[in-house]
Amino acid sequence: MAPFRIAFSDWAHGTQPAVERIMRLLSSRRDVLRTNPAEADLLIYSDFGESHWGFEGLKVYVTGENMLPDFGQCDLAYSPLETPGDLRTVRFPYYAQVLPALGTLVRTADYDAKPHLDREGFGCFVASNPRGPERNRFFRALHRRRALVSAGRHFNNTGKPLADKMAFLRGFRFNVAFENTSSAGYVTEKLVEPLLAGTIPIYWGAPDVGRDFNPGCMIDVSQFRSGREAIDHILAVDADPAARLAILSASPFRENREPDCLSDDYLVGPLLRLIDGGAKAGARRYRHRILREHAYASPSQQRLVSLGCRLDGVLWKLGVR
Fold first, then answer.
1. Which domain does 123 fall in, by range?
2. Are 120 and 251 found together in one domain?
3. pLDDT in tens, 142-154
C-alpha cells in the first residue's frame, strides 16, 4: 500500500516544533511520506501566506496565534481557540506547542522554591511586538511605581539586544507576562517561560487560564478591580518573602499533572481519524484573514490600536516615560 503523502505550506520560519512532533507521532503509527503540495494527499498549513488556497485535498490548519478556525478553508484545525461541540477543532494552546522543547512544569515531591526567592532584580519585561495596549499601559503604570528592566525591542531600557531570555528571567523576582490580546484558550510561552525560570508571572490574557494552570502560581491582573489595585498587591507580595515563597512553591498545573493537550495520543488521534476515516475535502470558501481579527470589532479598529501602540513605542524612545 502506498504511503499517505503530507505536505506543508504558509509557515513563518519553516514548520514549528509542534508540527514536527505531530509528524513524528504520525510516522510511528502510519506509513507517511513528506512531499510537496502538488503530490500530497493532505496539506498542513498555517497563517503566513495563502498558497494553501490552491490545494484541493484534505487540509489541516495549525496555529499558535489568537485565531478562530475557518472551516471554509480546512477540514481539521489545531488551534488555541475551541469551537465547542465541533470535533473538527483540536484545542492546542500555544504554550502546549512550545513547552515540550523547553522543559516540564510538573513538580517533583522534593521541589524547593527557596533558591528562587531572593533574587536581586525586582521585575522584568520582554516584548518585541508593540501591539498590546493593555500590556503597554500596565508596563508604564508599574514602571512608574517600581522600575522594571525591559530587554525586548519594545520599551527597551537596557540599550542592547536580549541574548538569552531564560537566563534573563532568572535574574528577577517578577515578570510582566501579558498576552498580546485576551481570548479564552490563548495562553502562550509568556506564561510558561517565567514559571520555568522560577520567576513569578504577572499575568494577563486568557480568562480561562485556570483551566490548565493553578491560579496560585501567578498573579493574575484580571482578578483585580484596577491596574492600581493589582500593582499595590504586587508590591505587597514583593515586601513579603512568605507570600512570594507560597507563589513560587505552588504547582503550575492543576493537581500537578500535565493537561491532556500535552499528551501524544491527544495530538495525533484526530489526525489519524481524519486519515483512516476516508474523509473527503470539504467545500472551500476562501477569504483574506488578518491575525487576531476576531479580537477587534473591525479591521479599522485593529489598525487604529496598532498605530497607537507603535506611537507609544516611539514616545518611549523619545524619552516620554
1. 108-256
2. yes
3. 999 999 999 999 9
94 and 155, same domain (yes or no) = no
Residue burial 37-66, b: 16+ Cβ < 10 Å; e: rest:
beebbbbbbbbeeeebeebeebbbbbbbbb
Q: How confident is the model at residue 224 (pLDDT cuts 50, 70, 90)?
A: very high
C-alpha cell read off for 229: 489595585
Give the burial class of 108: count Cβ atoms within 10 A of its Cβ; 0-12 exposed, 13-18 middle, 19 or more buried: exposed
The residues facing 90 across adjacent strands are 78
Contact 61, 77 (CB under 8 A): yes
pTM of the full structure? 0.93
- The answer to whether 99 and 194 are in contact (CB under 8 A) is no
C-alpha distance from residue 219 to each of 88, 97, 131, 251, 271 (Å)? 34, 23, 22, 14, 37
Query: In this structure, what DSSP letter does residue 115 have?
Result: G
| Residue 17 covered by a domain | yes
